[in-house]
Amino acid sequence: MTPTFVDVCSRPHHHHHQRRFKSSILRKPNERYAPGEAPKDKAEAAKLRLDTLRKRLHKVDTAALCDADKGMLARRQNGAEGQDDSQSDHPYVGLSLMDSRIKPRNYFPGPHTPAGANGIDDHPVQNGAVGNGGGALMGDADGIKMIGLARTVQCTRPNDILAVLRGLNEAKPGDVLVVNTLDSTRAVAGGMFCAEAARKGLGGIVVEGLVRDVGQISKFGYSVENGCLVYSAGVTPYAGTVQSIGEIGSNISCGGVRVSSGDIIVGDGDGILVGPMESFERVIDVAENIVEAERNILKGIQQGISLMKMCNYDEHFELRKNGKESALDWRKTRLVTFNGVEHVRIK
After folding, report:
1. Which residues contact residue 28 at a Cβ distance below 8 angstroms, ignoring those fewer than 6 apart?
2. How far apart are CA 37 and CA 212, in angstroms?
3. What is the pLDDT of residues 310-324, one digit of tens each?
4. pLDDT tens string 10-45
5. Could you tell me the CA-to-CA distances from 11 to 241, 307, 309, 310 in Å, in that order?
6. pTM, whole model, 2 decimals?
7. DSSP letter for each residue of 230-297
């Protein structure tokens, strides 16, 4: 399908403050590779597939991905999956959301940097990749984003950090260390580990447990060039021992979800999503369109257009009040017109 430009306009009402606005975003159908970038072998194909997905993921946020996942799961429940999905050879398994105990420890929204002691910004933020791996990226939404392949670390002794050090040593650029600490009450990562992760180009560190040195790791939440986002269930200044080698690459539990090495990890200020690459590829089109729709809805609000007039709120409310099936639908307003993908609907 030939890519087409999205035409965006407000619903035609007789209000003097409503104006037509238009998006210049080029909307493409679901595709893995850009034109002219066909891979030469399996290894190159795998790398290109990941790079293509990563570039698209950095333009959306976890909220849009969750909304897209919710829509896909609803379609599956209603038996509609596959009717207009070009990648439906396998059932959609969905995305997993880590629970709210796993919080960002150095995520700072907004394209700004912390001032050093001399008042000069020491860590300039630019659009691009972290280190050599491109794990953490400055997205279209405010703040740095964690995107990468899970490198799982299972501690086999509580309150011991050697397994995390091992994982850090074996990790490759673009990996995200995901750690289960066996409910440790001691920190298993801190400033030095974060600095080494940034040096190697890792996308981030996610710990089902505790970390320390928040003051030291904070600067890595601002910098894209030398960035590394850190998430954990808590903070303590007391570090663990360094004796148990642990396990690398096994299936683990982190944030209440199952994580396997090679899963895609996407994290921002709202939380962390985990899933196989295919699941993210299946939802990325809709997630991109949700971001575009929300951007233009916000433009409409700034122009004085009521949010309720940019969706089917009145109709939806009346139907639900009477116990009838309905969904909040933004497409009916003709605010955004999509090509080759499903409606933006919220149930």
Report:
1. 3
2. 43
3. 888 999 999 999 999
4. 333 333 333 333 333 344 445 555 555 666 678 888
5. 63, 11, 7, 7
6. 0.77
7. EEEEEE-S-B-BS----EESS-EEETTEEE-TT-EEEE-SS-EEEE-HHHHHHHHHHHHHHHHHHHHH
